[in-house]
Amino acid sequence: MMQGHYHVCFLVIVLSSILLNVGNAKDLRTVTEPKNPQSCTTLKAGSGDQTTTIQKALDSCAKGKAVELSSGTFESGPLTIPSGVSLLVDSGAILKALPNPTLYDLGAKTCGTRDQYGVGCKAFITIHGATGSGIYGKGTIDGQGGQTMTGKSETWWKLAASAKEHNDYQNVPRLIQINDSVDITLYQITLKNSPMYHVATSKTNGLTVWGITINTPSTARNTDGVDPMGSQNVTIAHCSISTGDDNVAIKAISSPSRYISVLNNHFGTGHGMSIGSEITYGASDVTVSGLTMDGTTNGLRIKSNTFRGGLVTGVSYTNVCMTGVKHPIMLDMEYGHNVTGHLTPEFRDITFTNVKVLTEGTFTFDGLSDSNPIEVTMNDVHIKKGSKWVASHAKIAGKWAEDVTGTVCKNAGN
Ligand SMILES: *[C@@H]1O[C@H](CO)[C@@H](O)[C@H](O)[C@H]1NC(C)=O
Ligand SMILES: *[C@@H]1O[C@H](CO)[C@@H](O)[C@H](O)[C@H]1NC(C)=O
Ligand SMILES: *[C@@H]1O[C@H](CO)[C@@H](O)[C@H](O)[C@H]1NC(C)=O
């Protein structure tokens, strides 16, 4: 009898831990803390443009190993990390992106200018068609978005601000672009001052972003932190992200994004934890767990419109705490002023569990129509008395209450 009982207990524990794993981690891989690869070569900073030295070292590095930047300031133009190879930036080293638009120009001589497209520059670091590459180390990669562009009179960020005024697009480099790749790792690195998005992926399966820091001013336009686009099996864990646009934005412009885990992160300034608005191919199986947001403009946000469309489903937000966030929850099927088309965005099976919002804010649930509402479930959602709750075309199941107390988030993230 005793033994039978013991077995039942054991089974219950095993089953519930399996269920917990499924509930908490949507990345289908088993992801553990990365380890720095061994170096194939170690470089010390020289003076002037180091592009050729670094690129040569990367191109001749054995697969599975890393080019190590050991100390000093390296100035460089765009770099490509080959398949299987990594870059390791040690704590004493800084890799700076030279602010010279001609180095990044894709051929149309538009990099560093504004136009109707905004696609004139390549990224500072490109990983394309690679398997098992990465960027590691406790050093810093600085995009120098606030530096005056070579041969121009304004900074990359000023150009971005001016594009907003003129209602067109800035041609400026992203910091790290990862396309059509498999099992890519970013570990511990500090990224700052990107002229545009810091990390963007396209059609990449297997991405681990672990323990990185992004630290860029809130005024720097379009400087998203980490944007998985059309990518699957993604884990973003133990990161600290402060920037001038979405801290994390999951998008799906040309293929679906799914199996994404955003675990134990801390966001400072920025536009929050977003899905959309470029979400035409849909996002599903996303878990956001253990997130603290301190001073972002939005908190948990899903945005689309009839121009973008997209099915967003199977999204769970668990153990989230926010302070100083104006729009703690913002689910919007009519995002962007007057952006309309013929597609139908759908947001359903969205769950909020143990969410605490310590300061007053506006909660928005803006569905498309009664036949296409936003469908969400709330468990254990506690918000500040005096908050605004705006819901139209929304089915909100479960419970929430204006009963939160306390002023400091404890251990929700990081
Ligand atoms: C995601 O990871 C699982 C588990 O490793 C794997 O079976 C699956 O093929 C991966 N999906 C993609 C699209 O790579
Ligand atoms: C990476 O993918 C994006 C989005 O699909 C595309 O705009 C960009 O040109 C690609 N970059 C490279 C280097 O392939
Ligand atoms: C949206 O369209 C309406 C009607 O055409 C117009 O009055 C309004 O100014 C537009 N709003 C914006 C932000 O473009």
Topology of helices and strands:
Blueprint: H1 2-24, E1 39-44, H2 51-59, E2 66-76, E3 79-80, E4 86-89, E5 93-97, H3 101-104, E6 114-115, E7 125-128, E8 134-136, E9 140-142, H4 156-166, E10 169-170, E11 176-179, E12 182-187, E13 190-192, E14 199-202, E15 205-210, E16 213-215, E17 226-229, E18 232-237, E19 240-242, E20 248-250, E21 257-267, E22 273-276, E23 283-294, E24 298-303, E25 311-323, E26 327-332, E27 346-357, E28 362-366, E29 374-382, E30 388-392, E31 394-401
Parallel strand pairs: 1-2, 2-4, 2-5, 3-7, 4-8, 5-9, 7-11, 8-12, 9-13, 11-14, 12-15, 13-16, 14-17, 15-18, 16-19, 18-21, 19-21, 20-22, 21-23, 22-24, 23-25, 24-26, 25-27, 26-28, 27-29, 28-30, 29-31
Antiparallel strand pairs: 6-10
Residues 337-338 line the site of one 2-acetamido-2-deoxy-beta-D-glucopyranose.
Protein name: Glycoside hydrolase family 28
Family: Belongs to the glycosyl hydrolase 28 family.
GO molecular function, one term: polygalacturonase activity
Could you characterize what this model shows?
It contains four helices and 31 strands. It folds into two domains: 1-16 and 246-414, Pectate Lyase C-like, CATH 2.160.20.10; 33-233, Pectate Lyase C-like (3 Solenoid), CATH 2.160.20.10. 11% of the residues lie in helices and 42% in strands. It is globular, with a radius of gyration of 22 Å. The strands form four sheets. The chain has a twelve-stranded parallel beta barrel. A six-stranded parallel beta sheet has the order 20-22-24-26-28-30, with no helix packed on it. The chain has 414 residues and is mainly beta. The protein has helices at residues 2-24, 51-59, 101-104, 156-166; strands at 39-44, 66-76, 79-80, 86-89, 93-97, 114-115, 125-128, 134-136, 140-142, 169-170, 176-179, 182-187, 190-192, 199-202, 205-210, 213-215, 226-229, 232-237, 240-242, 248-250, 257-267, 273-276, 283-294, 298-303, 311-323, 327-332, 346-357, 362-366, 374-382, 388-392, 394-401. The chain binds 2-acetamido-2-deoxy-beta-D-glucopyranose (3 copies). The site of one 2-acetamido-2-deoxy-beta-D-glucopyranose has 6 residues, from strand 7 and strand 11. Keywords: Glycosidase, Hydrolase, Signal. Residues 1-25 form the signal peptide. The active site is at 271. Pfam families: Glyco_hydro_28.
